[in-house]
Amino acid sequence: MNWLEDVLGSDWEISPAGGATGEAFYAEKNGKKLFLKRNSSPFLAVLSAEGIVPKLVWTKRMENGDVITAQHWLNGRGLKPKDMKNEHVAELLKKIHRSYELLDMLKRLGKEPLSPETLLENVKKAANLELLELPVIRQALCYLEQNVTEVQHKEAVVCHCDIHHNNWLLSEDNQLYLIDWDGAMIADPAIDLGMLLYTYIHESEWDEWLKKYGADLTDDLKVRMHWYMLAQVILSISFLRKKNNEKEMAEQLEFLNALLRKGH
Fold first, then answer.
1. Which residue, 55, 73, 91, sits at the end of a domain?
2. Residue from 11, 162, 188, 216 carrying the catalytic annotation
3. Residue 216 appears among annotated catalytic residues
4. Based on the domain organization, do 208 and 140 belong to the same domain?
5. Which of 226, 244, 43, 236 has its CA nearest to residue 126?
6. Scanning 99, 204, 215, 235, which has the fewest C-beta atoms within 10 Å of its C-beta?
7. Could you tell me the CATH number of the domain that includes residue 222?
8. Considering the entire predicted model, what is its pTM?
9. How confident is the model at residue 198 (pLDDT cuts 50, 70, 90)?
10. How many distinct structural domains can be found in the chain?
11. Where does the signal sequence lie (predicted)?
12. Structure confidence by residue, pLDDT tens digits, 7-66
């Protein structure tokens, strides 16, 4: 963490903030609190300006080319699974999916829209020989291949792609944020919608939730959400296998089975 002392000085109390990259930290001094990250995407500035992430305080470029960003460290809490039904979640996701500014910035950063065909290729690469020995994986891949032409969609928006409840932050003044944008893509909004609805909302309430978001539960949307959810679960299983996380991997395999039995 020497690079942080170079940026802040030695009189700040610094602690790791967790996360997969190990590049995020909390810093505190005289009651002032910051969230610091190394090599955040320039996308962060637009997210801050749109009020989607906590406010960006400053950005500094180091001599070695690293870029350090500092955001307000907010007192608040992550959402609980039951909170995902809240209309504020639907409203913020709607704002994200309809933001021209976010879409324009990702395009300027060189992001290309993710097609179903590209995602299917990624899923096939992730499902190595060990996973292909499992009948449920083979069955799911077969479904994805047979239905890839059924999920073509003209609208490509900015998708977060990991809208786990812990990535939603509610501040003490009741402001909602969506954080951890490292996996953002330009894609079918069904990627985010399917993950949220399948994970947190009972199917009998999908129509009501989507009305808060500003969409109808059409047969086309159901097919697309189901297809993308299958793809995302296979990718999740592959990731968990690499991490030797057998417990969560077993849970995801059971979920995949349930998805296949359910159809769309």
1. 73
2. 162
3. no
4. yes
5. 236
6. 204
7. 3.90.1200.10
8. 0.88
9. very high
10. 2
11. none
12. 777 778 888 776 555 578 888 888 788 888 876 777 888 999 999 998 888 888 777 777
b/e per residue 175-201 (b: at least 16 CB within 10 A): ebbbbbbeebbbbbbbbbbbbbbbebb
List the structure tokens of 222.
Answer: 């159901």
Task: Tell me: do 244 and 150 sit in the same domain.
Answer: yes
- E strands, 73-189, are 76-78, 157-159, 168-171, 176-178, 185-187
* Residues 57, 188 within the same domain: no
Contact between residue 194 and residue 224 where contact means Cβ atoms under 8 Å apart: yes
Residue type, 259: L
Considering 53, 73, 93, which residue would you say is the last residue of a domain? 73
Burial of 69 (0-12, 13-18, 19+ CB in 10 A): buried
**What is the CB neighbour count within 10 angstroms for residue 134?**
14
Residues 19, 119 within the same domain: no
Q: Please, what is the average pLDDT of the chain?
A: 90
Strand segments, DSSP code E, in 119-247 are 157-159, 168-171, 176-178, 185-187
Residues contacting 145, CB < 8 A, separation 6+: 120
Q: What angle, 0 to 180 degrees and rounded to 10, lies between the N-to-C axes of helices 219-242 and 116-126?
A: 30
Q: Do 136 and 256 contact (CB within 8 A), yes or no?
A: yes
Sequence-ordered list of residues with C-beta below 8 angstroms from that of 204, at least 6 positions apart, any chain: none
User: Which residue segment(s) compose the domain that 146 sits in?
Assistant: 78-262
**Per-residue model confidence as pLDDT tens digits over 231-261:** 999 999 999 999 999 999 999 999 999 999 9
185 and 89 both lie in a single domain: yes
